[in-house]
Amino acid sequence: MSSPDPKTENSDSQPPSEELGDSSTVWKDPVESGSPNEEGSDPPKEGGDAEEEEEGECGFCLFMKGGGCKESFTAWEVCVEEAEKNKEDIVTKCMEVTSTLKKCMDEHSDYYQPILAAERAAEEQVKKELEGDKEKEVSEEEAAAMKQARG
Known about the structure:
Elements: H1 6-9, H2 30-33, H3 59-66, H4 70-85, H5 90-93, H6 95-107, H7 109-150
């Protein structure tokens, strides 16, 4: 007798969504989805403290808080929110906390590598655009000078 096929052997004991490779059931982390845990904890209170429980917090924020720089990132978030609320310049107001966050991310570069790589790529793009603008300005200045020389 041949041995039974493991795929068909378990077909009665497990629903299809439990099989490996089936993406019809996606596990959701209760922390990320904002849903209460299975033990029936109270849902987040409406109008509660925004810092304690941010409903629908962005994926970037969750990622940043998931690494070793949670405290630095939270301080940066608070600074940015205060600056926006008070219509202050974010760069000037938050320079110190931004620097602290950047240093922390560099110290934990194994975790924050995707963000650091994206930041480097953005810096390179800005450099290229600035260099292109400078070349364009020089060309325009040369053209104006030549036009004036022909007079």
